Each structure stands twice: as structure tokens, then as C-alpha cells.
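Onboarding guide, step 5: your first structure request.
Type a short instruction followed by the sequence, for example:

Predict the 3D structure of this protein.
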Amino acid sequence: MTSTDTPDRLHGLDALRGGALLLGVVLHASLSFFPQQIWIVADDSRSIGAAWLFFAIHLFRMTAFFLIAGLFAHMMLARRGWFGFARDRVIRIAGPLAAFWFPVMAGIVTALVWNAHANGLVTPGAPPPPPPTYDWTNVPLTHLWFLYVLMIFYVALLVVRAPFAALDRRGGWGRLVDRFTGALTGPHTPVVLAAPLAVALWQDPKWIAFFAVPTPDAGLVPHTAALVGFGLAFGFGALLNRRRGLLSRIAAWSPLYLIVAVAAGFGAWYLAGGPSLAPMIEPTRDKAIAAAVTALAVYASALAAMGLCLRFLSGHSAVRRYLADASYWVYILHLPLVMLAQVWVQDWPGPWQVKLAGVSLGVFGVCLASYELTVRHGFMGKWLNGRRIPWRKPRAEPAAAPAE
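The system replies with C-alpha cells like these:
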């Protein structure tokens, strides 16, 4: 999902986008260690600490990702035009979704079958249960849902920008939009962005507060709250690219965003009742408070992550660049591997922290090795990352001196 280096490359935002994807490995690995079973695999070693870890990562991770995605999308659209932008996104976003969905599903089903046999849920000789039926309302997008939602946002960006560009020949509307973006960016930004999301969460009868912004991983029509929450982040990111100088303002306010994120995050955890799966059905006052606090925590944490990365990770780092390049492949590949590893270690003795670290690092190792050996230096590197990194050529030996 990266492009070639340019003089104005934003290394801090590259690091945040890559980190958001890589954290997905730890996020999904933590699910089997929750104190109550909410995942298909339930480890023998469980702790509320795993739920805390999941909650902290989930609160900001994908919102920050879509914030960066919006900024990079507008940057690419401005450089390549609508045709070049659309072609690139179809190849590198829609293409991987279509190509990898079936192998990912096959891996997930394999893990589910193995887990059923490992836990004695399959009676020998009994006929298998009927397969589930799917339609457009519940088709499983798995963890690749973000590619599908990205395509929706890309289409929306093109639809909105086309008439705007056609009508704004003299730039008057553009200057008005830029002034609006400047007024929006400041210490109040998380509050302003949180208001529409809070309303959407409050009106959602299926909202589970512990999961903050609902994950639209099933069905071809995403949850309204997900479209609002992630769409606002994507749109704000696109506006920021028009006034890239405002990024320094976000970096300057990042300590305040972090304080607000921590305070609101603790409040959101308390109001959600911890790792509870009970939905808040009725639009009561208590639900409105929980929705408002959660929405504030979502945007404050995402903006804090953005600002801190701009402040401390803006310099070039070969290691961070490598991981940012690898993160797309790692995220596509990781979920079946995480589930298989969870099934493998679920009965092992040992503290949950050690087992979680083992699952996460093991999956990271497999994914990074496969990236280096099969993706980075071949056609898949060009496909996924927009560039193919050639294998390092051996240094030529100095020519021997001629004999006297």
C-alpha cells in the first residue's frame, strides 16, 4: 500500500499506518485469552489483562489507519488524477481483496475444524453440520473488510471531488474549505469529530460499547456507525492533505490529545462494563453518555497517535520503512495463522502473557519471512507496495593486478 519515495514523504505517518496494521496481529492473538469466551478459541490461561490490551489497541487502531488513508488518498489523487488514482486503487486494494479472500477463508475454516476436533466438539462418524448460508447481508469479509470499506471511501472521494473541481475554477470554494479545515484543527478537534459518531452509536440498537466503533466484517452494507466513524477520519485526513501545514498543529496538541484519550478511554471501559458482549439496545441517557465518551476516546486516541508519530518518528528509519512496507502483506496473511497458533497452544501450561507473545512473535516471524522470500523482491511487491525491491547484488571483487 506504499508508493515510491518522494522528497516530501511523511515517514511518521507511514510508521503509524504500518503500525496500525501490525498491531492487528496482537489484537487478534489476545482474543483467546479473554476472561470469558468471546472467540472461537478459548485458551486455558485467561486474564482481564488481555481484554485491557485488546480494548486499548482497538480504540484507536483502525480510526488512525483511515485518518492516514484519507490523507494519502488525496495526495495520490492530486498527483495522478482521477484515472491514475482509480486504476491504482483497483489494482492494489480491490485486487488483493478478490485474490486473497478465498485462501484466507480456507485457512480460517481449517483452524475452526481443528479447534472443533481438539475440543471434542466433533462426534466420530456423525454427519457434519450443514454449512452456513450467506447472502449480501452476512457475507464474511473477515479481517479484509478494511479493503472493502476503503474502496467505498475512494469512490466517495472521487464522486465528491469531481463536481467540486469542475465548479471551483477560481479556487474560491477551495479556500473556503481550507479555512474550515484550519478552524476544525486544534484542541477541540476530537470533540467536534466525536459528536456525529456519538449520535450514530447512540442510535444503533446492536451497539456493543466494548467494541467502540463496530467492525463491519460481515455483509456488503457496512454499519452506519462504522461508516460515520471511519468515514469522518478518512475525510478529515483528505482535508489535511490540502493544508499539510496543519499537521504541525496536530503534533503540537498531541500531549493534550493523549491525556484526553487516556481519561476518556478509562471512562469508556467503565461505561461499557468491561469486556461485556451485551448490546445497548435502547437509546437511553446512559447509552448517550457511553456513546459520547467512547467517541471522544476514539478520535482523541487516533489524533494522539498521529501527532506523536509526527513528533518522534518523522525521520527516516530503514527498519520502520521495511516494517511499513511489510505490514500490508502481514495483515493479509496473519489471521488464519493466529487462529492455528491459538488452537495449537491453548492447552499448554504457562502464563497468558508468554503464550500471547509466543503466538504474536511466531506469526510475525512467519509473515515477515514469507514477505522477504516471496513478496518484496518479486511481482507481488510491485502489486502490493507499488514497487519491487531488487535483491541486493553482491559487491564486485576488485580486479586483480596484472602479473609483472
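Each response can be followed by summary notes, for example: The longest helix spans residues 48-118.
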